[in-house]
UniProtKB/TrEMBL annotation:
Name assigned to this protein: Capsule biosynthesis protein
Domain (Capsule synthesis protein CapA) ranges: 23-275
Matching Pfam families: PGA_cap
Family to which the UniProt record says this protein belongs: Belongs to the CapA family.
Keywords for this protein: Signal
Family annotation (PANTHER family): CAPSULE BIOSYNTHESIS PROTEIN CAPA (PTHR33393:SF12), POLYGLUTAMINE SYNTHESIS ACCESSORY PROTEIN RV0574C-RELATED (PTHR33393)
Signal peptide: 1-19
Organism, as annotated: Legionella quinlivanii
Gene3D superfamilies per UniProt: 3.60.21.10
Length: 351
């Protein structure tokens, strides 16, 4: 019996020090060019990433950047049309059919960014209709608002007792004026963005900022990205997941003024697109493991599972990279570092 206090103390320590962990998967741009649109409308959009669905669904929270509006039967001037050809267009003015959203939801996506340079490709009405279809499919979004709405700019997710606030902004809207203030802009609204991050950090376990920034096709972040990243970190962001360059940019850890280490993926590249070069077709699923205990909430681990976009005929879909000799693996090794890379088949064996 003399050992009982020690046993009880040990059990008490174990109980009080238990930690909750959530697994977040994040991908880059959902960019549906014409060949992908045609296949998706014919066979279903999930066919474009079918091999990845188990991993997308396995995560507690799955995020992606929705690169363009989903505005049913609106033409490129934002007017109603009866022509499918006029309604659902690709580059340079994107608009996707509503079935894309149900495909994302069925695949396991929980939250998307709607703040990007194509957000106004169907003008303000397009944003309104996009929000309608997202709400109908119960897919959370951040970065845009309906015309005249008092809706919040951010999205919330909760899993295993850990609350995450998601906040998206974009550096521009391709010259289309945001006349009704429906898009959160990283620079125009910088003061608002920073204040929102600070407020959300007080009421949530973590804030993840998803800026649409940088220069297309550039492999390294520019000064503006680095400056904004530091400001987001200082305001209270735990992670910053960028998009827009259409290729993966380096991962980094920066130190906030609070002393917290903040993870930055300057660009997650394309999740899916019909762009042709290796850098545009090489991407992956980023896994963030966020741990919460009595002392702190922090990112415990980061993994990156490489993928490659096949752009040929019937093979037009995103596939896993399952070899360290694959060109996409070798490319990503140079860009983000091999310390983050894990093949999908290996990740299944991790605890």
């Amino acid at each position: 019996m003399r050992y009982l206090p020690i046993v009880l103390l040990s059990l008490l320590y174990t109980f009080t020090c238990q930690a909750d962990t959530i697994h977040i998967v994040a991908v880059g741009d959902v960019l549906i060019h014409k060949p992908l649109r045609d296949k998706g409308m014919k066979l279903g959009f999930t066919q474009l990433w079918s091999s990845l669905i188990p991993e997308l669904q396995k995560a507690d929270i799955t995020y992606g950047n929705l690169e363009g509006p989903v505005a049913a039967m609106l033409d490129s001037r934002g007017r109603a049309t009866e022509s499918l050809h006029a309604a659902y267009t690709a580059f340079p003015m994107f608009n996707y059919p509503p079935s894309l959203i149900s495909g994302l939801k069925d695949s396991g996506f929980d939250v998307v960014s709607t703040a990007n340079n194509h957000a106004l490709d169907r003008y303000g009405t397009g944003i309104d209709k996009t929000i309608d279809v997202l709400n109908k499919n119960e897919l959370a979004f951040t970065g845009t608002k309906k015309n005249g709405s008092e809706e919040r700019w951010f999205a919330e997710t909760n899993a295993h007792g850990i609350s995450i606030a998601w906040l998206a902004c974009t550096q521009d809207t391709n010259g289309i004026k945001d006349t009704e203030q429906q898009v959160l802009l990283c620079h125009r609204d910088q003061e608002l963005v920073l204040s929102l991050i600070a407020e959300l950090a007080k009421t949530h376990d973590a804030v993840i900022v998803t800026p649409h920034w940088g220069v297309e096709y550039q492999l390294k972040p520019d000064k503006s990205q680095r400056r904004l990243a530091q400001q987001f970190a200082d305001a209270g962001a735990m992670a910053i997941l960028g998009s827009h360059p259409h290729c993966v940019q380096p991962f980094d850890w920066i130190k906030a003024k609070s002393g917290q280490k903040v993870f930055v993926a300057y660009s997650l590249g394309n999740f899916i697109s019909n762009q042709g070069s290796l850098k545009n077709r090489s991407s992956g699923l980023l896994s963030l493991y966020i741990e919460k205990n009595e002392v702190s909430t922090h990112i415990d681990r980061v993994d990156y599972q490489p993928t490659y976009m096949e752009n040929r005929g019937d093979e037009m879909q995103v596939n896993w990279v399952n070899s360290r000799n694959h060109p996409a693996y070798l490319w990503l090794k140079k860009v983000v570092g091999e310390q983050y890379l894990t093949l999908a088949k290996e990740n299944d064996k991790k605890p």
